Amino acid sequence: MRTVKLSAGDNIEATCTRCRKVLNHTIVAMVGEKVVRVECNTCRGVHNYREAAASKSSSAGSSARKKEPAVRPVKKDAGATDREEWESLSLTMDKGRAIAYDIDGKFKVNDLVDHAVFGLGVVKSVIKPSKMEVLFQQGKKLLRCR
After folding, report:
1. In angstroms, how far is CA 4 from the centroid of its own chain?
2. 102, 112, 144, 145: which is deepest, by most CB within 10 A?
């Protein structure tokens, strides 16, 4: 088997970074016997040498096989969980014990809140002394409180 010694100016197959195809290139620069930069004979773009994909796969053997894409489990809609929780809580709500929402009001977890825009809601958590997370029919909202 005869090996060809490459030098600057010779033609070589390489993957063109601009054309995104395996095309003929002219060697522009070498370091020792290693090809470093090439010029595409089609688009005339000069770039680092990238070995042609066909020669890579033949040398890599079985590891070059394409992997099957992993099947991802279907994610549940984030709002669906909130809607389910709202449905279960709305059956037991006593609208008479709802506290009218006020920025200066003090609320505890599981308090029923009557908001002017969002309607009836349940306090799910109090975050620090100035915020609370309230579950409304439309979903969870972060509201200010005292």
Report:
1. 46
2. 145
Strand partners, 48: 37
16-60 confidence digits (pLDDT tens): 988 888 999 999 999 988 999 999 998 999 999 988 875 554 444
Q: Taking Cα atoms as reference points, which of 104, 111, 143 lies closest to residue 127?
A: 143
Residue 119 lies in a domain: yes
Cα–Cα distances in Å, from 89 out to 38, 95, 136, 137? 68, 12, 10, 10
Please tell me the pTM assigned to this model: 0.47
In a domain, 2, yes or no: no
User: Given the DSSP bridges, would you call strands 99-100 and 112-115 parallel, antiparallel or unpaired?
Assistant: parallel
Could you tell me where the beta strands, DSSP code E, fall in 2-118? Answer: 11-15, 22-31, 34-40, 46-48, 99-100, 112-115
| 60 and 95 assigned to the same domain | no
Q: Does 49 share its domain with 93? A: no
Note whether 27 and 38 are within 8 A (CB): yes
* pLDDT single digits (tens) 18-27: 888 899 999 9
